[in-house]
């Protein structure tokens, strides 16, 4: 069995940071950044709060930020994102670089839905049923342990931008694919490749069994029963309401949304695709966006010449992403200033090596 990822115990935010004014925290963050200069790099994921993003040295998606961190010479990478993103950054960066997550509670419910013990147990059962006919692929939104499992078994990671390309490659290797941990991205991508829905099964890791009706010999894609808690909350009813009340408004969603929502939308694509599409859209155009609320609000602010709303007006921001806030960022930075590293993310070298196999197989093909 793969070794468990070495996790640092979360250290609680000191009380003194809870009573500071925003103005004081902003000035103190600026001061630390100026003091550290090139020794410090702060990557910020698109879903982060504006109070944090104002200090980001780079904005992007998870893999892009990890790659930028690796290309940077900074000694300290204070990653404003969630746990699996910081893990990827630690895997890709040099030994002298230290990756810090301001709040270790910033996890990802989707990534946590693919536990390594469940995965290894499920893989054994799938091998007993299908033999050596399955290649595992994992979304980069997964733990380092899952990436290592995939790397060890000949598979690769995928992003929402290159999932189609990677599935095409995977089918040149084996006749079946196991797609972890997001069933919706896997289903939407496979369907785009022309694979019928009836040739896709769902693996239930709680019950250790396939959810499928029909002849199992017809299965081409096995989808892990996981999802994004944010994107799954965009519903068919949300799209139907837009169509009824404002039919000229275009609907654009992330492929982590369900197949039914993607099918009814005008456009579907990665976070970068959504940002680029809105940026290139003509002034006066109307949009309903199905993705995380912090990003939707930022796009509304950045494009006042366009009429932009959230596809689900009652959607909340990603709760785990929002763990990273200004007080935690300031605390992490001032701890460095005092010579102390808090909440360092350090992936076990054995796991990191195997996870790198999965990442490199993807990077070699995109």
Kindly describe this structure:
This protein is an alpha/beta fold and 366 residues long. It is globular. It has helices spanning 22-36, 50-53, 62-71, 83-92, 109-112, 116-130, 144-152, 163-173, 183-192, 236-245, 259-264, 271-280, 293-302, 326-337, 349-363, and strands at residues 40-41, 43-45, 58-60, 76-78, 98-100, 134-139, 156-158, 176-180, 200-204, 209-211, 221-224, 250-253, 267-268, 286-290, 307-310, 344-345. A 6-stranded mixed β-sheet has the order 7-6-8-11-9-10, sandwiched between helices. It folds into 3 domains: 15-105 and 321-350, NadA-like (Rossmann fold, 3-Layer(aba) Sandwich), CATH 3.40.50; 111-229, 3-Layer(aba) Sandwich (Rossmann fold), CATH 3.40.50; 231-310, NadA-like (Rossmann fold, 3-Layer(aba) Sandwich), CATH 3.40.50. The protein has 15 helices and 16 strands. 41% of the residues lie in helices and 16% in strands. Strand 9 and strand 10 (209-211) form a beta hairpin. Mean pLDDT is 95; it is low at 1-8.
């Amino acid at each position: 069995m793969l070794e468990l990822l070495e996790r640092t115990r979360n250290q609680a935010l000191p009380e003194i940071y809870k009573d500071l004014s925003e103005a004081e925290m902003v000035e103190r963050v600026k001061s630390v950044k100026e003091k550290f200069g090139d020794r410090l790099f702060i990557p910020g994921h698109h879903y982060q709060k504006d109070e944090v993003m104002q200090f980001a040295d780079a904005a992007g998606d998870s893999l892009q930020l990890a790659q930028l961190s690796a290309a940077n010479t900074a000694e300290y990478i204070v990653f404003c994102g969630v746990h699996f993103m910081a893990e990827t950054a630690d895997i890709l960066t040099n030994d002298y670089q230290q990756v810090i997550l301001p709040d270790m509670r910033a996890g990802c419910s989707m990534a946590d839905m693919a536990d390594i013990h469940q995965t290894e147990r499920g893989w054994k059962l799938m091998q007993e049923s299908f033999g050596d006919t399955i290649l595992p692929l994992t979304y980069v939104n997964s733990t380092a342990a899952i990436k290592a499992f995939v790397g060890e078994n000949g598979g690769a990671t995928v992003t929402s931008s290159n999932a189609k390309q990677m599935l095409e490659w995977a089918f040149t290797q084996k006749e079946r694919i196991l797609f972890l941990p997001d069933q919706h991205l896997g289903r939407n991508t496979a369907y785009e490749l022309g694979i019928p829905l009836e040739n896709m099964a769902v693996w239930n890791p709680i019950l250790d069994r396939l959810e499928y009706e029909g002849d199992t010999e017809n299965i081409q894609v096995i989808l892990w029963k996981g999802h994004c808690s944010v994107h799954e909350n965009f519903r068919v009813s949300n799209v139907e309401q837009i169509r009824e009340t404002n039919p000229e408004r275009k609907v654009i969603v992330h492929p982590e949304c369900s197949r039914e929502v993607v099918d009814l939308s005008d456009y579907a694509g990665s976070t970068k695709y959504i940002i680029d599409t809105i940026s290139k859209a003509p002034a006066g155009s109307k949009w309903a966006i199905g993705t995380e609320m912090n990003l939707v609000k930022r796009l509304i602010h950045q494009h006042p010449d366009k009429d932009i709303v959230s596809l689900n007006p009652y959607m909340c921001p990603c709760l785990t992403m929002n763990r990273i806030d200004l007080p935690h960022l300031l605390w992490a930075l001032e701890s460095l200033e005092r010579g102390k590293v808090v909440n360092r993310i350090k992936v076990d070298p054995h796991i990191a090596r195997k996870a790198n196999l999965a990442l490199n197989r993807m990077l070699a093909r995109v």
